Each structure stands twice: as structure tokens, then as C-alpha cells.
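Duplicate of #3305? Posting structure anyway:
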């Protein structure tokens, strides 16, 4: 049985009511056309299942290792590059970006365990998620998580896109979060950027498909 994320309850209720009203209307308007009523009914059922799939939470065994950075989202790696991060670190970092299509699972998970040091919502535009400026100009939510034992911190940025216009973030500054736990949700896809220290060893490649909570993105630098 499919498990539905809480972010989908209201959306699915609205879709269900609209489809029910559509079918009632078709029933009375096309009382003599059984094929039309059947077609609309089948279409409604398929559409409801498609919307429900956007909010699915599959069962999966999550990867947990304090020396590793785990993918925060399902999707495809679209960026691996050294950049200047101006919002929080204000220095150069390795940016790894994951593009989430509407077909992907939309739950966002914490790449590491640690303390939430910073969160900030930024209103913005809705450029397509793969646009180079979407990371700084689109609606987005920035979170920074600090692993004080490993002396390591990362920035996770949830970015809205052309279709995805609803970002949810559940983190509060000062709270502790475990690797793999939910940090938020982006409705209908979009993109997640992760900013890592330059000495981090990246374990993924461009265009690689990753699985949130399972795929190893990077390995922390070994202690000297």
C-alpha cells in the first residue's frame, strides 16, 4: 500500500472533490453516452493516481554514516563545480545540484547528522530549475547543518522552479537532526543544491541518478 506524505493531503482532497464534481456533471449531461462517462471516470482515476504519486513515500533502507554526505533528494546530478557561496559561508565551496523531476520522490532529507545553525526563506522568481541563476534568483530556502564532532558544516538550498512553487522546510535553528531524517518537501519537483568544503571527496558524477537518503554524495576529509 502506497504511503502518502502529509504535504499531499490537502492537494489530494481538492483534486478528489474536483474530479468527483466533474464526474457528477458528466453523469447528468451525458446520461445516454455510457462511453463518455466511462472515459471520464477512467481519466479521473488515472489523474488522481498520478497526483498521488507526487506525494508518495517509498519504503527504503537509509544509509547512515558520520563520515559520508548522503543525497538529500531523489533526482539527477546537474552541477558539480567550485563556486563562491555568498549567503552564509562567503567563500568558495563545491556545489552539487540535484534536479528533481515531477516523477521523482519529493521528500528532502538531511545529508548529515548535526545541529541546525541557520535557516532562511528567500522569496524570488520561478526560472526553470536548471537555469544557472535559479540558485540565487528563484524562491528558495537555505539551511545549514553543522556536525560539531566532525568539525564539518554543509548548506542545503531547496529551490523552487517553473512548476514547483511550494517549498516546505521543517527545520528550526538549534535543533538536532539525524542523517536521513526529513528536512523538507518540494511539491512537484525542482532542485536541491548542496555546498560542501573544497577538501570534500565527491563520489557522484554529472547526470548520475541519485536516491535521497541512500546515494553517497561525498566523503568527509580524513583526520590528519
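Output from current build:
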Amino acid at each position: 500500500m502506497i504511503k502518502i506524505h502529509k504535504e499531499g493531503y490537502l492537494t489530494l482532497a481538492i483534486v478528489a472533490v474536483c474530479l468527483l464534481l466533474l464526474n457528477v456533471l458528466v453523469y447528468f449531461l451525458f446520461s445516454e453516452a455510457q462511453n463518455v462517462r466511462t472515459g471520464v471516470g477512467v481519466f479521473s482515476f488515472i489523474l488522481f493516481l498520478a497526483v498521488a504519486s507526487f506525494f508518495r513515500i517509498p519504503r527504503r533502507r537509509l544509509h547512515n554514516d558520520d563520515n559520508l554526505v548522503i543525497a538529500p533528494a531523489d533526482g539527477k546530478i546537474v552541477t558539480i563545480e567550485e563556486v563562491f557561496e555568498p549567503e552564509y559561508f562567503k567563500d568558495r565551496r563545491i556545489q552539487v545540484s540535484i534536479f528533481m523531476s515531477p516523477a521523482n520522490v519529493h521528500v528532502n532529507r538531511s545529508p548529515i547528522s548535526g545541529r541546525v545553525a541557520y535557516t532562511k526563506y528567500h522569496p524570488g522568481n520561478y526560472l526553470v530549475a536548471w537555469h544557472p541563476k535559479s540558485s540565487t534568483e528563484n524562491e528558495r530556502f537555505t539551511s545549514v547543518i553543522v556536525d560539531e564532532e566532525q568539525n564539518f558544516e554543509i548548506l542545503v538550498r531547496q529551490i523552487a522552479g517553473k512548476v514547483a512553487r511550494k517549498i516546505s522546510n521543517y527545520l528550526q535553528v538549534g535543533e538536532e537532526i539525524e542523517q536521513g531524517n526529513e528536512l523538507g518537501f518540494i511539491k512537484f519537483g525542482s532542485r536541491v543544491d548542496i555546498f560542501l568544503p573544497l577538501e570534500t571527496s565527491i563520489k557522484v558524477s554529472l547526470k548520475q541518478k541519485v536516491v535521497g537518503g541512500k546515494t553517497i554524495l561525498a566523503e568527509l576529509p580524513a583526520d590528519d
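Confirmed duplicate; merging threads. The first strand starts at residue 68 and ends at 70. The chain has three helices and 14 strands.
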